[in-house]
Automatic annotation (TrEMBL):
It holds the Pfam family Hist_deacetyl. Belongs to the histone deacetylase family. This is Histone deacetylase. Residues 18-289 form the Histone deacetylase domain. Keywords: Hydrolase. CDD domains: HDAC_classIV. The keyword Cell wall biogenesis/degradation does not apply. It comes from Fontibacter flavus.
Amino acid sequence: MLKIAWSPKYCHPLPKGHRFPMEKYNLLPEQLLYEGTVKEANFFNPEVLADKWILNTHEPTYFSKLKTLSLSKSEIRKTGFPLSEELVEREIHIMHGSVQAAIFALEFGVAMNIAGGTHHAFTDRGEGFCLLNDIAITANYLLENQLSKKILVIDLDVHQGNGTAEIFQQENRVFTFSMHGAANYPMHKEKSDLDIGLPDKIDDQQYLKLLDQHLKPLIDDVQPDFIIYQSGVDVLASDKLGRLGLSIQGCKERDRKVLEAAKKNQIPVMCCMGGGYSEKISQIIEAHANTYRLAQDLFF
């Protein structure tokens, strides 16, 4: 069964006019249920992740400042969110959603988190709509509990996974692969194990050709026993923050290639949502929904 993390806490309200589309966290599960891709039984409600697993990745001083709402104005500004107790609680639930989804992926081959993909959070700070790094926390949880020996992070969000790269710069059991807009945020890129910088307005054909050139050799060389897939849909040509040129169909083919590679090689994969900022919310939902439709079709 396809297991999907979702919680009402994912939908914490933001000030009117904020450019982060919180409404997608309600609309996506509604769409998947309406069209029959999933049923209520596919969803699980994440709980609060124990502090020890967050502190296994993040600096204690930083996490303490988050929980006590004592970040400086500059630190808050870099996250892009107005800091609140509810927002921190939301983030901690998202962390548990990805960890639990990874455990389900070990059982079923694939599992998803409606939220997550918070790849801009560093060990000691938050950035770019990310307070804690669910990709890193999940990878470290799997390693610490001897549930995995080698993890491949496939980050295909339009923005480089800079926080994930920093966290795992000295950890050879996690291979970080980020394929992102070369001229996009963050302006200062960290060093992933493999970075592919993409030109503005790259189209479906060029993008998918590049992905083909790297994905299979990467799996063959790294030989991971677990994949974490950041499936951001801000690669769309319609995205306000993206600057690339993919169509919704091209984005779907991107997801198909990753999920088919995981299935073919019998590597469990946990997918977290990542970004999506198109003007029309319907385009965001359709692109995200394709990831879930493919998971159902390919694995179940």
